């Protein structure tokens, strides 16, 4: 079906990017810098307080790692969603609309980014280190890639939802998407730290809790309900459904700029 | 019908190689400033969104600290009456100083406009400064909304410690702006090499986020981080000015801080300028 | 399912309007605009009706803002019309976009088509997968494209590093790789050297001959029209001003003539004055009267004998020639409505 086309386009694009060595190194290093800068702040906070709502430093590090992994998965495959507001303003969506493929998936895979490797590496290291320190049996470590993939898909769907707003509120900057990004990075802290309202938003409205906080709590034995582990794929599917609907609405709104 | 008149010569506005007068230069900058502020107002939904995002991000850290203090004030940490106003002031100052230079420069390079920028009679660094100023005007307006809103809740806590504290802060803020500008301009040079504005922006942002004192005063940092931060200019953009405002640095210490800021500002701007001239020369050689 | 019967394009009363936010100038205007929400309806296309058969080569011309791009976008399924009926190859473009896309080729002149930063060769093989082009067809189209558009040296270059002219040629090749039944070209020769424009036109004609492709070309370069198209649609402010063959267009609108003469002696102001008055009486203009060169323009070819006689009687002439106005001038005049001869509007419902 269309998958052949997506894969061919994705592979070609990724291989080409890997040829730019400087960009590769720069992308990986700067992504790591960003994650480490946030980790540094967490370090400052936890050095002062020793624990946050029952979560110690290593467990908070796990939250940071899982967040980074979801980010990395999304960036590795679907990063082109960030270009949607720009495409809309420039009328560049036209090109995609004349191809005999579904616009949304094709658009998403068209531009994998290298700094995803930085997030994936740091995320993986942090998550594994945290699991090690907390003596989690190795077989359970397999949950991590599972949750990371669900997380990447869920986060991407949330970004698509935000990007769909750009059809109505036209402007070349991805501020809507960046807000979603910040909502995701909030998950580096245990959600119980936040007021109930925010906790509910991140559980029910944009269910990021399903991909970081709840699974983490489950694997460290803080939550016993097994749904904490299995909610991730369901939440991801639900968000994808919403995203596809929103995108369809957006394309119908689409007015390109004309010349 | 008579013979058509020969074409009249166009008036020459300027001879080749004639330079602009100072008034023309200043009005050039002013026009640039006005245009940038106008552009900011044009995309209004995005403006509101970006503001809300900034507030949200800051509030995350705020909420975490709040929870920390609720659990019990950490040993050796400042009292909440100092810390929470500090966080608000740091946010406002940081928001006012937000710039989008990397994106702009990279976009102009991508669009092939950078050549004309480099050839314009207006100094490139000067133009960047003008645009940073227009960013500041706009962002400071929004930041002051937060400040005023917070004052309604926190009252005296957000007031400057004394008139002299306010005065020192005012100077410190100006110097902090220049330091920020100097840092950004330095990083912007990297865009001429990689076109990867995202990476450059992220790298600078990461360093700034950690060492500027935005999320926590550097006095609360563990020794290792504090040591690194002491050698970087970022603390002079947010942390030190807010300390001045809160009257935590007075007298000789305050003067010395201003002096250190001035040195950093001058050093960064001049170094940036020096590097930039080198880059332009090498570009000319390549004919790029 | 290939669509065999009926017109390739069928357009009835097609119209499109945009909503635009009212903008006022200046800094204060910007601040006001921030808080207000006034919108206005801007009609871009005001009710077009025309029909294009399989294999026709049609040119669509009009000034900027005339509605060419909007029309093209509706035809390719990118924009939904506000009103009217529209089918391309029997399909409604904005409803059956992906199915239509398999039989359709599009080139957006000012905006390069090829999205990714991958080598040209890879792009073509990607398109082969995307359009499910059979090997037999691909061999022909790919081979022809590379040969006729000199793409060989570009095949290994990433698309990002191509110059505009090179990218245009690749775009054009890309749009015709799958031998589509209908091709829309929006400014295909813009920014190209004269020799490359020739190459491009020949290539388009060649593909048309091979595959009986229906062509719709919008352009500002009227040589594209005269060399490639047989039929002309003229758009002005969203309405169809003319729809017919090139020949008809010239006959209806190109009634102007230019009489260029070389004189024995340099013309004197008195002679020029008399000649000018006489020309005006006959409904013409003395455009040039300098030294030994005189040029008279008049709008009705029927006056040719009278004007010639007036000239020969006024001054001693060594040599003269009679020129038809070229199509560019006609079109320009059409827009500015300067033609003293009020033309009929051609085929229009």
Report on this model:
The complex is a heterotrimer of chains A (259), B (288) and C (349). Chain A has 259 residues and is mostly helical. Chain A has helices at 3-18, 21-49, 57-78, 84-90, 93-97, 103-108, 115-133, 143-164, 175-185, 196-205, 213-219, 227-253; strands at residues 51-52, 55-56. Chain A has a two-stranded antiparallel sheet with strand order 1-2. In chain A, strand 1 and strand 2 (55-56) form a beta hairpin. With 288 residues, chain B is mainly α. Chain B has one domain (39-281). Helix content of chain B is 73%, strand content 0%. Chain C is built from twelve helices and 13 strands. Chain C has helices at 26-35, 68-75, 97-101, 120-130, 135-148, 164-176, 194-211, 222-228, 246-253, 269-281, 304-314, 327-336; strands spanning 9-21, 39-52, 57-61, 83-88, 104-108, 182-186, 214-218, 231-236, 239-245, 257-263, 284-290, 293-298, 317-324. In chain C, strand 6, helix 7 and strand 7 form a beta-alpha-beta unit. Mean pLDDT of chain C is 82; it is low at 338-349. The chains are: A mainly alpha (259), B mainly alpha (288), C alpha/beta (349). Chains in contact: A-B, A-C, B-C. At the A-B interface, helix 2, strand 1 and helix 9 of A face helix 2 and helix 8 of B.
Order of the strands making up the biggest sheet of chain C: 5-6-7-3-8-9
Tally the helices of chain C: what do you get?
A: 12
Number of helices of chain B: 11
Number of DSSP E strands of chain C: 13
Report the radius of gyration of chain B as a whole number of Å: 23 Å
Percent of residues in β-strands of chain C = 25-35%
Instruction: Provide the low-confidence segments of chain B as ranges.
Output: 1-17
What is the oligomer described by this structure?
heterotrimer
End-to-end gap of chain B: 53 Å
Largest Cβ-defined interface: A-B, 42 and 38 residues
State the domain count of chain B: 1
Overall pLDDT of chain C, averaged?
82
Spell the H/E element sequence of chain C.
EHEEHEHEHHHEHEHEEHEHEEHEH
Largest sheet of chain B: none
Amount of helix of chain C = 25-40%
| Structural category of chain C | alpha/beta
Structural class of the helices, strands and pairings of chain B?
mainly alpha
- Mean pLDDT value of chain B: 81
- Element pattern of chain B in H and E: HHHHHHHHHHH
């Amino acid at each position: 079906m269309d998958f052949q086309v997506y894969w061919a386009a994705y592979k070609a694009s990724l291989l080409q990017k890997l040829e730019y060595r400087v960009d590769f190194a720069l992308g990986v290093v700067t992504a790591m810098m960003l994650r480490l800068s946030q980790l540094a702040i967490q370090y400052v906070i936890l050095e002062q307080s020793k624990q946050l709502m029952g979560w110690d430093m290593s467990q908070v590090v796990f939250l940071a790692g899982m967040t980074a992994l979801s980010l990395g998965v999304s960036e590795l495959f679907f990063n082109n969603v960030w270009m949607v507001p720009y495409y809309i303003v420039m009328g560049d969506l036209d090109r995609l609309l004349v191809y005999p493929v579904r616009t949304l998936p094709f658009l998403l895979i068209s531009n994998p980014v290298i700094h995803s490797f930085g997030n994936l590496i740091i995320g993986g290291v942090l998550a594994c280190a945290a699991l090690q320190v907390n003596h989690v049996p190795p077989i359970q470590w397999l949950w991590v890639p599972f949750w990371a993939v669900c997380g990447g898909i869920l986060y991407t769907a949330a970004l698509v939802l935000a990007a769909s707003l750009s059809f109505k509120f036209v402007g070349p900057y991805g501020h809507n998407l960046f807000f979603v990004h910040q909502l995701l990075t909030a998950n580096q802290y245990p959600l119980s730290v936040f007021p109930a309202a925010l906790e509910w938003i991140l559980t029910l409205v944009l269910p990021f809790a399903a991909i970081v906080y709840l699974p983490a709590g489950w694997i460290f034995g803080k939550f016993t309900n097994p749904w904490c582990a299995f909610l991730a794929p369901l939440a991801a599917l639900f968000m994808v459904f919403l995203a596809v609907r929103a995108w369809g609405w957006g394309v119908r709104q689409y007015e390109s700029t004309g010349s | 019908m008579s013979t058509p008149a020969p074409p009249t010569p166009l008036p020459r506005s300027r001879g080749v190689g004639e330079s602009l007068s100072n008034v023309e230069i200043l009005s050039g900058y002013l026009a640039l400033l006005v245009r940038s502020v106008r552009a900011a107002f044009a995309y209004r939904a995005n403006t509101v969104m970006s503001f809300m995002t900034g507030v949200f991000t800051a509030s995350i850290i705020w909420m975490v600290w709040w929870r920390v203090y609720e659990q019990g004030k950490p040993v050796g940490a400042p009292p909440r009456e100092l810390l929470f106003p500090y966080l608000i002031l740091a946010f406002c100052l940081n928001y006012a100083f937000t710039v989008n230079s990397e994106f702009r420069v990279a976009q102009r390079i991508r669009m092939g406009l950078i050549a004309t920028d480099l050839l314009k009679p207006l100094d490139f660094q000067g133009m960047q400064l003008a645009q940073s100023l227009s960013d500041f005007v706009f962002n400071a307006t929004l930041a002051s909304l937060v400040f005023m809103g917070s004052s309604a809740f926190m009252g005296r806590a957000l007031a400057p410690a004394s008139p002299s504290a306010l005065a020192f802060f005012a100077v410190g803020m100006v110097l902090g702006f220049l330091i920020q500008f100097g840092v950004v301009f330095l990083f912007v040079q990297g865009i001429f090499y990689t076109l990867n504005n995202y990476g450059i922006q992220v790298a600078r942002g990461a360093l700034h986020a950690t060492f500027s004192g935005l999320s926590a005063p550097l006095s609360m940092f563990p020794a290792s981080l504090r040591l690194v931060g002491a050698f970087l200019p970022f603390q002079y953009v947010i942390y030190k000015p807010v300390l001045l405002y809160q009257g935590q640095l007075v007298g000789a210490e305050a003067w010395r801080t201003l002096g250190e800021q001035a040195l950093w500002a001058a050093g960064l701007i001049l170094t940036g300028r020096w590097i930039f001239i080198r880059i332009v020369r090498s570009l000319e050689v390549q004919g790029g | 399912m290939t669509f065999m019967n009926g017109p390739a394009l069928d357009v009835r009363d097609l119209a499109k309007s945009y909503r635009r936010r009212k903008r006022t100038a200046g800094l204060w205007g910007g601040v006001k605009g921030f808080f207000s929400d006034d919108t206005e309806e801007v009609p871009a296309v005001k009710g077009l009706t025309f029909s294009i058969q399989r294999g026709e080569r049609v040119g669509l011309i009009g000034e900027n803002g005339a509605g060419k791009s909007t029309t093209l976008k509706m035809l390719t399924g990118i924009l939904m019309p506000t009103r009217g009926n529209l089918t391309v190859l029997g399909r409604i473009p904005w409803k059956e976009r992906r199915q239509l896309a398999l039989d359709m080729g599009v080139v957006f002149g000012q905006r390069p088509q090829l999205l990714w930063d991958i080598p040209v060769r890879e792009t073509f093989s990607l398109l082969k997968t995307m359009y499910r082009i059979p090997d037999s067809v691909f061999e022909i189209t790919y081979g022809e494209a590379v040969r006729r558009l000199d793409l060989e040296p570009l095949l290994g270059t990433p698309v990002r590093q191509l110059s505009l002219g090179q990218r245009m040629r690749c775009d054009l090749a890309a749009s015709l790789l799958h031998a589509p039944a209908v091709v829309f070209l929006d400014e295909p020769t813009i920014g190209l050297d004269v020799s490359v424009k020739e190459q491009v036109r020949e290539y388009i004609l060649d593909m048309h001959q091979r595959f009986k492709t229906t062509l719709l070309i919008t352009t500002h370069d009227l040589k594209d029209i005269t060399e490639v198209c047989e039929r002309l649609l003229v758009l002005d402010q969203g309405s169809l001003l003319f729809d017919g063959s090139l020949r008809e267009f010239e006959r209806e609108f190109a009634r102007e003539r230019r009489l260029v003469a070389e004189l024995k002696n340099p013309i004197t102001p008195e002679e020029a004055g008399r000649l000018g008055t006489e020309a005006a009486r006959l409904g013409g203009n003395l455009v040039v009267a300098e030294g030994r060169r005189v040029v008279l323009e008049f709008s009705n070819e029927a006056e040719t004998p009278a004007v010639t006689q007036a000239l020969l009687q006024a001054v001693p002439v060594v040599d003269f020639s009679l020129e038809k106005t070229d199509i560019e001038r006609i079109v320009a005049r059409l827009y500015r409505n300067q033609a003293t001869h009020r033309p009929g509007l051609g085929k229009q419902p």
